[in-house]
Each structure stands twice: as C-alpha cells, then as structure tokens.
Specification:
Elements (H helix, E strand, L loop, with lengths): L1 H17 L3 E6 L4 E4 L1 H6 L21 H13 L1 E10 L5 E12 L5 E10 L1 H45 L7 H24 L6 E3 L5 E3 L1 H4 L1
Antiparallel strand pairs: 1-2, 1-5, 3-4, 4-5, 6-7
Helix pairs in contact: 4-5
Length: 219
C-alpha cells in the first residue's frame, strides 16, 4: 500500500509539472505553498523549491491588484481569466490571466487560494495594436474633417483678398501689407493640404518635453 501511495504521489507531481499552465496554491495571507515547474519558469525561477514560502505579492506590478483579486474571490468564490500585470523575478513585466478559487476550512473561512496562470502578453499586445490603430483612424478622420472645414473659408478669404489687392498699386504701403497677408494665407492653405494628407503618426519636440504632431512628416 505504501508503495502504491508513493507511486501515486509521484505521478501527481509529474503530471502537474507537465501541465503547460502555471498552477499554484497560496495561503490567504499570500505565501506560496505549492507551484509547478511552469509557474517557476514563467516567473524566472530556477526551481520550484525557490518559490515555497515566497510572498506572492512580489510578483504583482501593482500591489493593489492582489487585493482586488482576493476581494473578488471573497465575493464570488472564484475568478476566471482575470488579466493582471505581473512581474518576473528580475522585474521584467509580464501580463497574465489568472483563474483562481478560494479553499474553505470547516468554518467557511478562506485558508488557501488555488489558481492557474496563463501568459497573455501576445493578447495584450494585439489589443494595444488594435487600440492604437483605432486611435490613428480617429485622428485621420478628424484631420480630414478639419481640412475640409477650413478649405471653404480660406477660399473665400483668398478671393476677397484678390479683389482688395487689385485696388492698390505695387509700392503702396497698403498693397505691400496685403501681399504679406496673402502670403500667410497661402501658407495656411499649404498646412491645410498637409493636414488632409496625414497618413501616419509622426511627432516632434515642442517645449518642456511635450511632443506635437509633425504634420510635414505625417503627410
């Protein structure tokens, strides 16, 4: 019987270590009492033994996230695929989805948290890419709309300015001032055209570390 139990225990350990997801158990206070090899690998540890008794709070980039996780388990009994920003042993960031449940004692008090962790860095990266794409599309639509709204009043101003300039002769003070105004209107027209041609995001330094869109490079 003893040999059977030992064999069964070894099978259980080998099986858990072969699971591609990180499996763990912590005390309610946050000390790791069990994890498999995948857990150790994901967080950059050389062995499972290094993690026994390890404060799991150290793996959270935002310490408040563990409080949110615990509160959710206390309220609902479990969580499923909760995205959490975690950190490896060396501090490098990693995004994970946590599925966990509370283990109760005879008095109904949570004593352990059993959970499973999956890396979702690729999923988060895709979501950020999609979000950035949507933002860029919004910027392009806004740029096109602004350029369209500016074109009509600029055209009217140009036509009226031509009529006013025609009343003056070259060399007159008013004529020279009007030509300067006309030149500035032409520059505004060029900027408007560039805004309507914006196809990508390009920035340049402005002041105090602030960056603004470089319209010339973006169009």
């Amino acid at each position: 019987m003893k040999g059977f139990i030992d064999s069964s225990a070894r099978w259980h350990v080998d099986f858990m270590n072969s699971v591609p997801a990180a499996v763990y158990r912590t005390t309610f206070e946050g000390k790791l009492v069990y994890c498999n090899r995948t857990f150790a690998r994901i967080f950059g540890f050389d062995s499972v033994g290094e993690l026994i008794g390890y404060p799991v709070i150290r793996l959270y980039r935002n310490k408040k996230d563990r409080g949110i996780l615990i509160h959710s388990i206390m309220q609902r009994g479990r969580i499923t695929d909760l995205p959490v920003a975690l950190a490896k042993r060396d501090g490098s960031p990693i995004w994970c989805a946590i599925t966990a449940r509370g283990l109760l004692d005879d008095d109904g008090i949570v004593v352990y948290i059993d959970g499973m962790i999956r890396e979702i860095n690729d999923r988060i990266a895709q979501q950020k890419t999609k979000s950035n794409k949507e933002k860029m599309e919004g910027v392009l639509e806004m740029a096109g709309g602004v350029a369209h709204l500016l074109n009509q009043p600029l055209t009217i101003i140009n036509n009226l300015l031509d009529e006013v300039i025609a009343k003056y002769r070259p060399g007159d003070a008013s004529y020279e001032k009007m030509k300067i105004v006309q030149y500035q209107i032409i520059k505004i027209n060029e900027i408007t055209q560039n805004i309507s041609n914006v196809k990508k995001y390009a920035a340049m330094d402005y002041v105090a570390g602030v960056k603004i869109v470089d319209i010339d490079k973006a169009s």
